[in-house]
Amino acid sequence: MVSGIQIQEGPTKIIVPEDHSAGGPGKINGSVFFNEQMAFNRDISVMFLRAFDSEMTVCDAMTATGSRAVRIANEAPKTTVTANDISAYAMPYIEENIRINNLRNCTASNRNLHSLLAENVFHYIDIDPFGSPMPFLHSAIIGCRRNGYLAITATDTAPLAGAHRDKCERRYQCRPLRGPMCHEAGLRILIGSIAREAAKFDKGIEPMLSFSSDHYFRTFVHMRDGAGHADKALDQLIYVAYDPETLERSYSSEPDKEHVHGPFWGGRLFDREHLGKMDPSGTAAERRCTKMMDYWKNEIDDIPLMYEISEISSFVKMTTPPFDKFIERMNQYGRTSKTHISPTGFKTELTLKEIISVYKEVSGEMR
Ligand SMILES: C[S@@+](CC[C@H](N)C(=O)[O-])C[C@H]1O[C@@H](n2cnc3c(N)ncnc32)[C@H](O)[C@@H]1O
Fold this sequence. Notes:
By secondary structure, the chain is α/β, with parallel strands linked by helices. The chain has helices spanning 39-50, 67-75, 91-100, 113-119, 134-142, 157-160, 165-172, 182-199, 227-234, 272-277, 286-298, 309-316, 323-333, 352-364, and strands at residues 5-9, 12-16, 56-60, 79-84, 106-109, 122-127, 144-154, 203-213, 216-225, 237-242, 249-252, 261-265, 307-308, 336-339, 342-348.
């Protein structure tokens, strides 16, 4: 018998250590990690995988209690899941969680993921470490079947969002950005780093779903085999110049004296066709999933980088107009959307000069 408490996530039962994390980045309180707040994150994996018509082999390479693995096996029935963790303490939890959900399509594995993925290939591999996923990326790419999928989480949000530049440069060989767009920039550093690592193996990536949430960044990418795909992905890397005094952002495909931040992924974050097949019904955090799906489906993802309405307010020094009204008016002049990254953030094809002009127009009407 394993010591712990039984919780319910969606239709799946999970035994977890009694002393587990309820939110934030989480930490190991006992010997095995579990974070309740990540139920939403696990929901997204379930929705992502059950949107495929084909049978898929799945490796949850760092599964801890097996929570994500058993949820996938139980809620995405066309999957065959390997629930792996290096920790021997995790095994009783994984085995018990497979047993209490009567799963025949899930197997416990107690391996170092580097050797597991050197010897086995899977259609889908999930990497969910403490901190940066970079030390595990090479193995994940090797263990991914031809044209398979990787799901990568990074919880080292402070370096990625520019709070610790040196650490970001060491881990990701990328100079981060500080400013209102720093979370989108962090997400784009993560994706760009996956593209650069994959290119070493003549593989390209196509992001299918990428988001910033709570204390982490996460992306699901489709791996595309072939040097042509690798080159195409590398062509989407960008370098950024940002002036906090003028709010001006500009982009270049090469680094130069001004464009010193990067490289960032400058391409799309979502695959709308796949998003259209993802169904939140029956997930643990169904309302949150539905709300986020709505954001992702409508978010402009082919234009970096977002603005915050507060930065325009401080710059223009005029009353902030109601956000919805501002977005609606912006859309009369050019493609504009909200972003899941911040409730007061927006993406637009308009230039800064045009944004300021629309802002003044809407704000002026409020007097
Ligand atoms: C953040 S926890 C994973 C949480 C889990 N995915 C969940 O949703 O609850 C990271 C896990 O990675 C495991 N781990 C660390 N290095 C590993 C390696 N080289 N191979 C396999 N597992 C590893 C740790 O034992 C730990 O359980």
